[in-house]
Every structure is written in C-alpha cells, then in structure tokens.
Amino acid sequence: MLGEYRISGGRAAEISASVERGVGEGALAPGQLLPPMRELAAELGVNPNTVASAYRMLRERGVIETAGRRGSRIRARPAVTARESIRADLPEGVRDLSMGNPDPALLPSLRDALGWAVERADARPVMYGEETVEPELARLAREGFDAAGVPDGPVAVASGSLDAIERVLAVHLKPGDTVAVEDPGWGAMLDLVPALGLRAVPVAVDDEGPLPGEVERALRGGARAVVVTSRAQNPTGAAVSARRAAELREVLAGWPTVLLVEDDHGHGIVDLPVNALSGGPAGARAGGGPWVFVRSVSKGYGPDLRVAVLTGDAETVDRVRGRQRLGPGWVSRLLQQAVVRLWTSGAVDTDAVARSYGERRDALVAGLAERGVRAYGRSGMNVWVPVADETGVVARMLYAGWGVAPGARFRMAAGAGVRLTVSSLGVEEIGVVADAVADAVGPGPREEGRRYG
C-alpha cells in the first residue's frame, strides 16, 4: 500500500510526524491510500486509538482526507490554514502568550502617517496606469537593502510577507515541485506550500538558522526552492549568523537554478544584523540563480499595515509585478505613503523596540535555564521550549493561567514543543511564567542540543 515507506512511531504525534515526513520527502504521494487504523496499529504495536488520534491530527493539518469506508488518503491539495485551528480555547482570565502579536505599547500611532498620506492623495489622487510602487518608498527600501548587504535589484510591494512569498513561489514553481522549509517554522508557510499544490520538505534549524547539511539533503532530494528566515524566526527566534550564511551560500552555489527566498519579517524589532544569503563577497547568488529578499513592516509598525517590500533578480520581480497587475493591481499607494511617513518621521525608535523585546525574551530563556528547562530565543519576540508531552504542557499551562501555542502549529518532523510570545509580559512577570513552564514540563530528561528539528 505504501511501497517501501514505513510509517513509524509509538505515540500519535510520532506517527503523524512520520506521515508528514513521508509526504515532505515525496515518499508518500498525493492520493496515496494509508493503511486502515487497526492494521497500522497492529504493525506498530500500539492501541488503535493512538492511530486514530494520529490520523485526526493529520486531517486537522490538512495532510490527509478520509472518505468513510474508502479509507484515508494523502490529500492532493491540502487545506488552507489548517494549522490556525491548532490552538487551545482560552478560558476567561487566562493570559494569552500564544498569538505571536507585537506589543501594542511599542507600535506607533498611525494617525499622523495616514493623515499625511490622505492629504497627499487629496491633492493628487493616484489613478489607473500610474506607477504601482511609491517612488519614495522604493528609494527608502533600496537604501535599507543596501545597508543590509542585500544585492541590487528592482523593488516591488506586496500585502505582507506571506503575500510576497506566495507570489514568488507561484511565478517560479509548478504543482508537485518541492520547497525546502524550516522545521519548526512559520505555520502559515507550512500551510501555504501545500495549498499551492507544492510539497514541503522539512529542514531542521538551530540558533543560527537552517542546518547546511539539511539544506543540502533537501536540494539533493529535488527541492526547487528554499525559504529562509533571516531573523526572529517563528517559532524559535533563530537568526542566520555570518558563519551560517557563508555555509549556506556555499551549499546554494551548487544549485544555481533553485529559487532562494529570504524573509526578514523581523525588520524593526531585532538588533541583530541581517546576513543575506543572496549577498556576500560573491554578490547576488554565488553561482547565479533566482532570488528574492522580503521585508515586512507588520511586526514593527502594526499587523494591520499590510505592506512588505521585496527585491530580487530582475526576472523574478518582473514576474511578480506582472501577475500582481492581473489581480489586485497594486498595494494601496495610501498605505505605501503611510510607511514612507513612518520611516522618515522617527515615529519608532527601532533600537528601543528591539531592546525591549530582547530584555523580555532573554530573561525568560535565562529564567527557564535556571529552572532546568532548555529554551530557545536568539531574536524576536518568541521563545521555543522543546517538551516531551506537548498536549499535557499546554493543558497544565492553561490550568496555571497561561495560554501557550502548541508546537504542532509549527512543525512537520521536528520534535514536540510549545511557543511563548513575550510581547505582553512585563519583566516582573517573567519569573512567574518560568515557574509555570517548569512545573508544566515536569522532571525528566532535558533537550540539550542546539538543533530544534
């Protein structure tokens, strides 16, 4: 039924991860029939309820579909936003550390920026046929890219990072192509790839970003694109170091036709520098190849300000712009002008914002370490805690009055974990949260390695 691939695992999470790994590697093809639950339970030596739970998790994530007595199959086109539903309902009085939102107190007021943009629009409305990118925004974005060592290229604008990445993948890849994605990684990305008819192959990460050997493995397995988070990786807080960037550039140089997508959604909230894989001593993509670097304003200036700027090789950016014209046309020039105002008015002290998140994040990681709990959070606003029993930890944290995000939202083959967002915490609350996490995790072996996956 499954050919040479063998599903493994003794717990529901392990079984579901094994199936997802098979899908990501291409060993389990779309439409492939899975073993009946009792048959697989007998093969693995587990209770049929354990397999039923694993299949339920896979259905919730959009990996498989079940048609009654006809059995369960790998979906041909997994459902969108399946991972968004993997969350615990928070009773009244529970503090929410699960959503990944920025601290509202660190966001600027948009009144002045939007008012300034409206005055400009009243004086000279933007009409059909005009430039789709605000010239001043393009200039400022290019200056920022230059300062970060991102190679020269034209600038386009999208409605946030995910919109930009979707457009880039769609103009380069065809259904069935494989995309290498970080694991654990951004849940929306893990949903987007299969929703486009593409296959996701997991790449393990550590504090310095994707592991070079894992990227090499994915490329040798046929990956046609690689998506890398520059800083503030969600959920782990990883940031690509200069050393790791050099190693990954060397790997990518051997695959000049593979698309490289870099996501710098942490711009404005992180004090670590960008180490662009598309840059470096050799310039744009050693060995050549298509590339895009995406930078969002959502984390630093507000999630509802749906603007991201991107640059890349001329052909890729031209394709994105051309396809965009046939859909929304362009991102509102009002919003683009508002971003210009925010960037030029000094409305946000980005150093202070990064310092605020860093103090809270570092305090939580250190507090957990003092209590014998390994946690990760090199940059950004999230902390990742590997655990043995994800569901149990989430439930015990709820009982203690804290809502955390289950790691199932962010992982394919990676081990279980939970994500905590520090943006709503005061420094004085860190010890209380660390105590609750330590109690929820309980005694036992701790994760000692640097690798998350």
Descriptive tags:
single chain; 453 residues; alpha/beta; eight-stranded mixed sheet; 15 helices; 15 strands; globular
Structure description:
With about 450 residues, the chain is α/β, with parallel strands linked by helices. It is built from 15 helices and 15 strands. The strands form four sheets. The chain has an eight-stranded mixed beta sheet, sandwiched between helices. Strands 12-15-14 form a three-stranded antiparallel beta sheet, covered by helices on one side. Strands 1-2 form a two-stranded antiparallel ribbon. A hairpin with a 2-residue loop joins β6 and β7. The longest helix has 21 residues, at about 350-370. The two termini are about 30 Å apart.
Task: Write a concise synopsis of the structure shown.
This protein has helices at 12-25, 37-44, 48-60, 111-123, 135-147, 161-172, 187-195, 212-220, 242-253, 298-301, 314-325, 333-345, 350-370, 390-399, 430-441; strands at residues 64-66, 72-74, 95-96, 155-158, 178-183, 199-206, 209-210, 223-229, 259-264, 291-296, 308-312, 382-386, 402-403, 405-406, 417-421. By secondary structure, the protein is α/β, with parallel strands linked by helices.
